[in-house]
Input
Amino acid sequence: MAERTLRVALAGNPNAGKSTIFNVLTGSHQHVGNWPGKTVEKKEGFFEYRGLRVEMVDLPGTYSLSAYSPEEQIAQEYITEEHPDVVVNVIDASNFERNLYLTTQLLEIGVPLILVLNVWDVAQQLGYKIDVEKLSQLLGVPVLTAIASKGVGIAELKEALYRAAEHREEIRPREGLVKYEHALERAVRQLTEAIEQLPDLEGYRPRWLAVKLLEGDKHAERVISAHPQGAEVLALREKLKARLKHTYDDEIDIAFADGRYAFVRGLSRHVLTMPHRPPTTLSDRIDRIVTNRVLGIPLFLFLMYIVFNLVQTVSAPFMDWIDELFSGPITAWTLAALSAGHAPAWLVSLITDGVIAGVGSILVFVPGLMVMFFALAFLEDSGYLARAAFLMDKAMSFLGLNGRAFIPMILGFGCNVPAVYATRTIENRAARILTGILIPFMSCSARLPVYVVFGLALFGAHAGVVIWSLYLIGIAIASIAGWVLSHLVFTEVQKSVFVLELPHYRMPTLMTLWLHTWEHTSEFIRKAGTVILGISVLLWMLLNLPWGVKNPQQSYFGKVSSAIAPIYEPAGFGTWQAAGALVSGFVAKEVVISTMAQVYLSEPTSTAQAPAQLHPLEDLKQIVVDFGKATIDAAKAFLNVLTPGVNLFPKHGAGVSETGLSRALSRAFTPLSAFAFLVYVLLYTPCVATVAAQAQEYGWRWALFSIALSLTTAWIAATGVYQIGLLLGFH
Amino acid sequence: MAHNAMPLSMAKVGEEVKVIEVRGGQRLRRRLIELGFTPGTRVRILQDHGGPLLLAIGNSRLAMGRGMAHKILVTTETPVIQGSAHG
Output
């Protein structure tokens, strides 16, 4: 059992390998949440070593510390306010100078520090020679080397942390290590002296506060102005700033940044020797092809095609398996249990038609999402996603967005929910929200069943063309909406600048990929799941109340639908059935078809009493067998996807079974009104899960804005299609 | 100032240039300095797709929008062999 605790924060640049070190150290003992009031991820974990419990926080990856971006603010506030016992600064040794900029800021804060020169192998390959001992001497803090992806140097880091717990003060950098040029330095000293007069600085270093105040940092200003005698210090600051203005104009903070770089360069002159001409790396060779002007985009489209197919084909067998599991054995067993307990009919219906059907409809998404998250994590961790953003930057600029927005958009074709979460990688808040609002126009895979059923019922041989045109309409509407919104609402996105570091290619470890996949999947199940479940129960109540209603049109659901129906009159589908299907389609788009099947065919609902006999053992066996089949099918599909153009396992007998529904639809719709209906299905709010994701990421205000936008756009487009179609003589 | 100064956005693919000055707003300048674009730093242009540029600075690779690259003033690396002093 651990008797003592050491609180450690990991700091470093993005891509320096911080997360790898965090994962290797803490393994499964980690927890992912959000920083209070922010959408930035907070990762915490712990490990034990020789009776010492080490609690770690993985700070957001940043290039510097300031109140400039949410990530930097979080990192700076955590280090200065939460007083971790030790900060471990992870440095990409192959990119030594750039990474040391952040180090200088950590030295200035004066927190006990350990440097880890990670990616040591790459630095060696590049011919970098870093004098580790000398660096440690000059800075007065321990310096270690590591290749975290291979577990090299981790034992040494644990040992260094163990020693740090004993002699924490010995690894605290001394004050005034980083010095500035003459005029700046004089101002810093003068202000430091004034701050030193203040009693009780809560552990802040006076010199750090002085530098930060002169830089105009809001956080340091807060600390000082909260102090009873802070006003004098702030007055002196203004005086000093006015004096510095003669030399530096309005760019005092840039002079400080320059000063830090001068320190870094001085340092690297002493400890770093590198070859005159850097050798071409494997990463560069891959980039010559992958980011090539001619080959880059086709290669990207090809990769996307593979990811798409993987998501659809690999997950489909498992989706069917889950679907059958819920509609079959689980429903049967529950019915048996309920009837054995003499449950009233309404409870049976609520649990089977409402809760089980609802939970089933959530879980059915899970395999697809897991495949998607896994593929996304692979593309991201390998370093490819950053290249894709580079390739698509030009095309995205038309929407007022930059390359970073492209990845979430393309993911939207698979499923809008993870796509919305993927917008987190976009730095600029306005651009992030705009992207999240355009994603619903990307036709997700849940809409395809609706297109297919209608296509076959009303368009026969032209079904394929109709379906393709819907995808294109979605892209066109997204482009128009993006252009308009970026000019009218999200004007700040125009100012967002594009700069993105392309990490060196690397093979992601399976553990990291799994951690990413599971983290996102469980988040989906937890958060979106509760919403879908609630709405499913609500829909059940509306369809079954007043209790005992025979004709669905007489249910509350039917009455609400009838009330809504006239809105869709101009678009050509103003019937209560169509309106009702659209309302239930708000939960998930596939529901449109199942609702139509219910209302057009008035099928008896599944509330038929429990079957006389149960075969739990046979059921269990069947479940296992089916799972095995699903796995084999998925494996086959996987191989098929990886060998495009060659179908190794051709499908047999893919027919359409819903012929009854087809006939009903061809009576209820004309080709024109059906097309208008499909345009509406394409464009209106995709599902509650997407709305929940939008609310979580951008707040309810923007989620509601997105609903309003998609509903109006859908209505205008569908009505336009119908009315223009009528004028042109279609019917 | 060097006579062959130009914006980074106009440098040719494969060329190695030296940063002279970073222009533009304070936030942008600071951001670029933090990424290592300090005067004297060498930058190589790896790709130019008409839109963004792919750059090598130190050992890092950066994708940079053209607008941003326009704000960085550079000079082409011409090694002065004669060592003739000027200015």
About this structure: DSSP finds 30 helices and ten strands in chain A.
